[in-house]
Amino acid sequence: MFWNAGILPVKYADRDVRVPGNKAGTMNKLLLFLMIMSVLCMLNATTLEVSLDGTHPYTTIQSAVYASSNGDTVLVHPGRYIENIDFIGKSITVSSDYLNNPDWSIVESTIIDGNQESSCVIAIDYEIDARLNGFSLTNGYGYDDIRFGGGIFQKRQSVLSVSNCLIVGNEGLNGGGIYTGNNCITYLSGSIIKNNQSSRSGGGLSINTSNINFDPVNINSIFNNYGNIQDIYIYNSVCNDIVLDTLSVDISAPDGYFVSYNHYSEPAPSISSNNHYITQVDSDLFVSPVGDDSNDGLTPETALKTIAYATRIIQPNEVNPNTVFLLPGIYSKELNNQFFPVAVQSHTKLLGAGEASSEVIIGDEWNNNTISVWYAEHVDVGNFHIRKNNMYDNYTLSVNECEDIIIRDIDFGEAQTNKPGLTVSQSIDIELSNCSFHDIVGNYRFKCVKTYLSKVTLNNVLLHDNNSNSSNGYVSCLDFDDSTITANNIIVANNYQDYPGGLVQYSNTANNSIGENLNLSNFLMYNNTSTSSILPMLIFFNRYDPSYISNMTIVHNIGTNQVLRLAGDYTIRNSILYNPNAGPELNIWEPSSGDSNPTYSNVDADYNLIRGGISSINGADNPNNTLTWGPHNIDTDPLFRGDVYGDVELEDIRWVQLTENSPCVNAGTPDTLGMNLPPIDITGNPRVWDNIIDMGAYEYNATPNSDETAPTPPTTIQVSHFPNPVTPNGSNGKVAFIEFTLPNKPIEKPTLEIYNIKGQKVRSIKITQSFSALVRSARLSAEEKQSGEMYSQIWDCKDDNRKLVGSGIYFYKVSSEGEEAIGKMMVIK
Fold this sequence. Notes:
Layout: H1 24-43, E1 47-50, H2 61-67, E2 73-76, E3 79-82, E4 85-86, E5 93-96, H3 104-109, E6 110-113, E7 121-123, E8 129-133, E9 136-138, E10 152-154, E11 159-163, E12 166-168, E13 171-172, E14 178-181, E15 185-189, E16 192-194, E17 197-198, E18 205-208, E19 211-214, E20 220-223, E21 232-235, E22 238-239, E23 242-247, E24 259-262, E25 271-276, E26 285-287, H4 307-313, E27 322-326, E28 329-331, H5 333-336, E29 342-343, E30 348-352, E31 360-362, E32 371-374, E33 377-387, E34 397-400, E35 403-413, E36 422-425, E37 428-438, E38 441-442, E39 446-452, E40 455-464, E41 467-468, E42 475-481, E43 484-493, E44 496-497, E45 504-508, E46 518-526, E47 529-530, E48 538-542, E49 547-555, E50 558-559, E51 564-567, E52 569-573, E53 576-578, E54 586-588, E55 602-606, E56 609-610, E57 626-629, H6 641-644, E58 718-722, E59 736-742, E60 751-756, E61 761-765, H7 771-777, E62 789-795, E63 808-816, E64 819-827
Parallel strand pairs: 1-2, 2-5, 3-6, 4-7, 5-8, 6-9, 7-10, 8-11, 9-12, 10-14, 11-15, 12-16, 13-17, 14-18, 15-19, 16-20, 18-21, 19-22, 20-23, 21-24, 23-25, 26-27, 27-30, 28-31, 29-32, 30-33, 31-33, 32-34, 33-35, 34-36, 35-37, 36-39, 37-40, 38-41, 39-42, 40-43, 41-44, 42-45, 43-46, 44-47, ...
Antiparallel strand pairs: 58-59, 59-62, 60-61, 60-63, 63-64
């Protein structure tokens, strides 16, 4: 039968054919048809011979394929055939002389070279039973514009048998070695798939909504491939147990990094291999642009060179995660032969080793400069600048089906792509902190931060000076789709778009959403331009739990449509909406008449300045909507520094500081207890001043207009946190924001430690950069006008082993240059 006989006619009844359940009928009919056709074709089969030297009738493989009929064999003699072979819908065998002489040297000397133009071999037609035997496939680039399947591209319910082939040195967007999709059947026997590269899934093999069968006797080898998933990616497909001679690592089940299997009903296959190519290192590793991959990587002096190599050979450690440290310098394909994506394993870290993120630069040319964290848990990535990603459909950093991932201190800048930033999909407990997305120029629609079906906390995030100037382009700075979002200290400034699309969007409406609500505080959005007359600049749409918005300053944005649209249950406090050069400030969603599942809104607004007042709010008169308009809302000029004094440019963050006569001063909520409000403003100064707070993201006392009115910097460390209590299992206040202000910028980084009531340390949180430094680096302010250096850190109520702590009282201690400060908080699970 097939598994033992190289390329003999296939007995379909002997095959263990497994197909996705809903496709079984179609596949059975296809197999019956192919069985009948196979018998008929073999009765009249002929052999067409190919050689480069002209001693046989054909000098190219494709010309013989054109001349063949179903059931024929195209026999190819040794040589390098620079072609892209297409079976063009024929059920034929294409084989080297290995068919008659099973010598592996024949495989190595009979080469199909894709010449970086397309896939080496293509089988994409319905009802085709194709067989490939005894070739080396190399230098393939993927099929057509989609660039799937560097070595082999298979699609459209075809059946393909690949036997005794060496698939090496190919690349594609999906499936560097082989890509199979759209309800195909693939048989793999006696083949080696190695040293291939995919920009996305399955460096070696990618199977999507199809069937893959691995020969358990004439076994295959799949190793040393690169991609988001290194060797084998199987999605919504089924396969028999994976029996190999060599795999990259020694695993017995899919690990989500080297081998990934995702199917909603079929159990995962077991994995066995006689050998493994990689021996992982249970230690921290160092990488340098001038390193060498032949080094051991254990010290800076013996650093490795390639990031992607280091992240795959480092061994995951659940107790003490190992770190790949990137030494200062530029890492790029052009300068030092880096290749991407860089995939990160569970229980590891990928961190820049410089003092600041600017010291480690990933990407120095317009290329596929991407990092992926897929099917992983407990990962920490950050402290570098990643730039110039030019991949059309790959985000610069992607997090997919993960848990407990920290993304921090990353400068996303200077990209030209529609996905220049971060995507988080179907993941929980994701932290994004101290990151900026800036100077992205595009002529299409691009998104800086995109979440889908995820639970994400954002803290200290800047999105500024991004521009999509095409009539078909928009800038989506924040796009939260069916996700739970907690966000603090967010600045959206100086962005421009021409196409209809919200600059900031939150939508939580899907039936399968894992999201609950939006908690947004210290949000500053100013000097953005959106020429769309169709969609508002901000869209918050929530069908589920109540959402809370506080201390927003949304001002001096330019547009022809509404500024903020709300749908769902929202509480708004201490916010300023003042955009004279835009449409109405607030719109309450009115469902269309044909909406089968309408969302009506309950909006509770008080202690806000909203231009135009209640009379300007659209949708408030809908009988199914409820607007609770508090008595402390005001409608007047907020008297910002830029308007009153005119001493700063509009692009400068200080333009929207409050002045001494601003009606927003001392106009906020007199009682902040239980409201989940931040204790300090967006510049790090105390929120409560004169026993009351101001409206907006700023406090007046923190934003002087001259040195004479500047507040005196603190002489000691000032600590605070919110909310209190912290409720990690609740719908509001799931994480603690621990914030502190130092008298001056410290020489050494401060430390933050969490203790339980017994005095036992449960967590050490690494401090990287201050929010003050992030704002300075973003060029949003020409000078420092604040009292001290402000830091804001997330504590997710987990200990150093990433386990959720119990309910009780906890203390946090900040230490810096010989001084300490202690705060106390309550955690209620």
